Amino acid sequence: MNDRFLRALLKQPVDRTPVWMMRQAGRYLPEYRATRKQAGSFLDLCKNPELACEVTMQPLRRYDFDAAILFSDILTIPDAFGQGLYFEEGEGPRFRKVIRTPADVESLPEVSMTRELSYVYAAVARIREELAGKVPLIGFSGSPWTLATYMIEGGGSKDFRIAKQFLYNHPEAMHLLLGRLADAVTEYLSAQIEAGAQAVQIFDTWGGILTPPAYREYSLHYMQRIVEGLKQEGKPDSVPVILFTKNGGQWLEAIADTGCHAVGLDWTTDIQGARARVGDKVALQGNMDPSILYAQPEVIRAEVQRILRDYGPGPGHVFNLGHGITPGVDPEHVAVFVQAVHEFSTAE
Amino acid sequence: MNDRFLRALLKQPVDRTPVWMMRQAGRYLPEYRATRKQAGSFLDLCKNPELACEVTMQPLRRYDFDAAILFSDILTIPDAFGQGLYFEEGEGPRFRKVIRTPADVESLPEVSMTRELSYVYAAVARIREELAGKVPLIGFSGSPWTLATYMIEGGGSKDFRIAKQFLYNHPEAMHLLLGRLADAVTEYLSAQIEAGAQAVQIFDTWGGILTPPAYREYSLHYMQRIVEGLKQEGKPDSVPVILFTKNGGQWLEAIADTGCHAVGLDWTTDIQGARARVGDKVALQGNMDPSILYAQPEVIRAEVQRILRDYGPGPGHVFNLGHGITPGVDPEHVAVFVQAVHEFSTAE
After folding, report:
1. Which residues in chain B land under pLDDT 50?
2. How far apart, in whole angstroms, are the C-alpha atoms of residue B76 and residue B81?
3. According to the CATH classification, is domain A14-266 in 3.20.20.210?
């Protein structure tokens, strides 16, 4: 098996820097758009293990990526809690039911994530079979705080005013909600690992909108609980955990202290400085601005080279974008990107 | 005159921490909405010195703020360049003409900001008269990079893909544009100072979407040119310059090195750590999350106290929000906020 990705996460030496892309199975690929059409809605695609497997495999047929990532959505857990997830075409996710009061939190049903989200584990198992050991498979979940923002706002938001108001006016109910979500995420990731996920990533898309103390108390704390929970459940260290807080560059030391194996960086953080700050504690994943993929090939190549040079020699780097690839990117530019990581990381 | 604000910016001792709010003259105030209606469009209000003066004064009649800020828009300069600024109701700013090619940059007309933006200086002079020395008046401008993003995108953007594509594919044309804008901003702020502005703030709303090297080269560099330009034009050190890059918390040291007098902090940066990082070089302005104003009074008071405590004793702090106040805030909550800054900063 190509285990560069897993080795890099564990800070073991590799022959070249492994690379994958957040949202690599996505709308920039015409074959994805075709399968999506066949499936019906985006959610239909997530809930169909066969088609979810198909779109997971698509980017690997085109590009020499060092990891596959389960095709799914970060909002499967709130959906399992009965919030009624749906997507409006061209809009973001929406929920039919929202949480607006402490009573709404208290009346959240008891739900077995193992039972309710079996379509996800079926997809994981199927993808592992299809991958046949070619590259490792990454499972994932949204972070408790990120899930909570959607559950309270009822969808995406510009300033997360309702979620923040809930946090500040009802801190106990917020902790209750986040505790429920942390338990659900732990169960969910455990089940993904049992089904075959070889690494897991927690997407904390909205941790970066908080103040430093609120981030530690309401987002990081619960991610740490998940990391510890997975260890207590006997999930081996050979299944690394990656924490990714977008706009979390100022809090790297604290993130690295959770016991996770790797920290995702968006593009606003200097990776050289980041490496010095976290020391030997964790590997780093990132950190190219996805917008660079809209630039000319020589610009893409120069930026890949800069980031590899900034990280410097030695193990512990997984190359990635600092956020998901966007739908308008030319698939040819992705080929340039992957090729550049291979070329420049072998040379150095 | 109440000169707490100016003294704090120059790191001189004050009897209590001065406070003002970004967008303090704004839609959360019913009297603002009434004047806005009377004026016609938002832009009509900006271009009417008498009414611009009126809305500048409104928050000072309600609250004991330590500074007034000129009511205007950051996009007056692109408008003066003939881009045709307008506002769609409920949407952000838009331009009739956009910059999409290097040729568009080269054909940008020669414009005297002193002549073209005389309505701004008229408002400044009128506000100074009306203030009658009560508190100092802040002038402002958008940063060259922030202005460029709007001029290229033709309005706001989610990922600034077109502006970044221009930057990466046409770096020379981008530098030409930013140089033109830096000259325009220098002339604009000079004229505001001559008309009576006693401090100036540069709003770099979108510097934080760049990679660290792109931020230094395309945003910070041009703000530094403005700081140096104002000094060369003999603008005295008694007219402090505040630089505010939203999401710029990772680059504070570099911002403080520009020669500016103060650095604005959004709410994601720990102000205690920020103070240690910039040392005696600059004052700090900020850094309460504007969303806190939606919380209960006791939460607002606790957060004010936390930030004051985190900054610690000694001069050099101007209390502010980490971004503009939003339209839905209850004006009573602003009173609680201002009162808390007074109370807790006097006590410590």
Report:
1. none
2. 9
3. yes
